[in-house]
Amino acid sequence: MVDESTTSIRSVERAAAIVQAIADAGKAGSRLTDVAVATGLSKTTTHRLLGTLCNLGWVELDEQNATYVLGYPLVALGLAASDRHGFLNLAAPHLLRLAELTGDTVYLTVKAGAQAVCIDRVLGTFPIRAVTTNIGERRILGSCAGSLALLAWADPDEVERLLVSLPSVELAAGPVPDPAELPMLIQRARVRGYTQTPAMLVPGAEGLGVPVLSATGTAIAAFSVDAIAARLSEPRRSQVAEWMKREAAVLAHRLRQFDSAPSEGTVRRLLQ
To answer: What is the rounded average pLDDT of the residues 195-223?
Structure first.
């Protein structure tokens, strides 16, 4: 009779084999059948484990191509154990500059399905800090300033699909946005050029977010600033937003040195 510990070890080994098979497939991703063949597992077992990995955010399903790719949270775990390079190196000067200009906590986030993942953060020097998210943590799109920027500047068809799917997205912890308010927040953000939302995890705090835009005008990443509400009232709010938009535009320009038409795929490659 197989004991519980042996079964748990076997499940971990199988999940690790699936992650490795997807990683070996590269940016194109891997179909269910290909993952099963590469790991020697049955399709039923492979599908079950892929479902668990998707729920964790470690693996994402590209529904258009029916392929599985590595998720940003898994990339973030790898980054925590290695020297940072690629996209994080490109973005780091802009995060540092924004933290210096604002004195507040600045975040860099990317989209992973219906969630946003914090991939870097710089603490400001202002004595009262609003620290709402750690590196590697996920938030539902629309639940905070950075994740709302990723949602507001997504492709219109994707925005519509995400708004429908958001109520069913589950996380172990974190704020949940009100789907009824999101269309209004998205429209307001598009007009202003930045998002403004209460930071739900810290009472009395607010956040501003701006997208880093692709060649087609969709968000491939986002900068956000969290601070006590009094520090984001006018006229300072507009000044902070302009600083953020400037840094986002320069980062987008730098990305074009690596890819003439930068996209989410560009960011993913630079994070690997």
So the answer is: 84
